[in-house]
Amino acid sequence: MKKGLIIALAGLLAVTGATAQKKTQPSWLSDAVFYQIYPSSYQDSDGDGYGDLKGIMLRLDYIQSIGVTAIWLNPVYVSGWTDGGYDVIDFYRVDKRFGTNSDLVELIRQAHARGIKVVMDLVAGHSSDQNEWFLQSKEAPDLRYSDYYIWPSFKPEDNTPAPKPGEAFDYAALMNSSAALIRKFVASDAPRGPFYIKNFYDTQPALNFGFANPDPEHPWEQAVDAPGPMAMRREIKNIISFWMDKGVDGFRVDMAASLVKNDFDKSATIRLWKEDFTKWFDEAYPEGVLIAEWFNPAQSVAAANFDIDFFCHDGQYNYSSLFFYNHRGFGANAAAAPYFDKAGQGELKTWFELYSYQYDAVHGRGYVSMPSGNHDFNRVCTEGRTNPEELKVAMTFFLTMPGVPFIFYGDEIGLKQNPNAPSTDGSGPRAGCRVPMLWDGTANGGFSTAPVGEIYIPQDPDPNRMTVEKAEADPNSLLHYVRMLLRLRKDVKALGADATWRLVSSLDQPYPMVYERRLGDECCYVVLNPSGKQVSVTLPQAVSRPEIIGGSYKKCSYKQTRKGDIVTLSPTSAVIFKF
Hints:
Number of helices: 14
Oligomer: single chain
Strand order of the largest sheet: 11-10-9-8-5-2-1-12
CATH topology of the domain at 497-578: Immunoglobulin-like
Structural class: alpha/beta
Helix content: 10-25%
């Protein structure tokens, strides 16, 4: 691990007052397994071509059968649908596409009856430009919602080079410089002023949580404790309370790091969460969970007291070198194959150093979670990696690592990325991972009774595509394998969220990857060989001979010798040993 990273983390924790004591977390979280559902794509109950809440209710028995204990729903609020539901018009009402508020309450009731928690998406950083708050804010400076948004009176000069065409998008840098913020100025003819500040699309004006070190020459830069930002905080708490009091079990917070503007080191945003939002939430809803979309657990979990943050596709801390065929998992293949590719030409060092830093920072305070996928990047079943045996190796990794597992809907059957899916609801290239679920061999794969041309996003066109029906009938399917892994994770605590983790194999010999999971006297080794060739590795001598408790392989041997323990694994295999 890099010395500079350690020093930076130590300084950050000192500034924010984080301690080594584990903060209060929901009693159910350490055994949780999440299942992310993009509601438009899961199950259509009324034949309009879009998934809905009643459709999810129809599939709760299936969801329970996988072995998951919690559902995360992407936004179901009333939306302008310019960014897949992340442009919210009304934070207190379910969009008619999905049903009603009463439908959501009934979904929660039915899920709870099956022992499944329900977590919503909280879009804390922005709203739709059709939201009543923004429409009023446009008119004058002294109305109720006037300071819910930011209205610059002029646009400062930006002397930094503009991003080059095709340049990789960097989420972490989104609000991390003055130049980046200036590029978020949107010209407006509103009576209020000539500009407002957005987050992503022009239809997503940023909510006003204040500025770190406001510039006196920029009168629109309010302090974080100014009346406008403080009113915005109260509104966010009202939204949280409204849904929590209806039975919701927590929130995944979209763009959680972006709230305070010009906050280059995120210290002001960390204080906002630690000293206000997460502190208040833990006291008001001790059994509720807060999940950050921050992509830096050392800040979000260790410092700001979130329960979980993601380590996946964006920012400095990501697993791109393990799973992506390019920087963000979209588009054509890059020259170098990722680690989880049958070519066996990947490396572990890049990921290991980034992950180890975050794991060490967060262990004992909360969780670094690596999801199998989500609505913003390519599925694990994508170009270059579609064979069920390859997917089993990848899912073994996702479901035996520490932290709380997150399965993106369909990944449990190998739902395949559709690279040719047309942009829908502002999805751009993300449409390919948001394809409708495939349930059976009927029209539209059982997703919808609408005409084929009217469903939300075209499904995988492969006539041999996998469906839940096919997977249930095949005892060797990925679905049954995922169920086996989740049963193991539940029964063997050394494979759980709180057990320790360390890499046993050498970075100089990437294949196979061998890591240890340990809790008390219980110890497991997970051995992964994504490559298409047989591999062997010599490990330090173990005190006892292990037994195989799970995996996917044709041949595997574990020989104990005086020079060490030699593990040999057949191509594209995964094995879980217990000592």
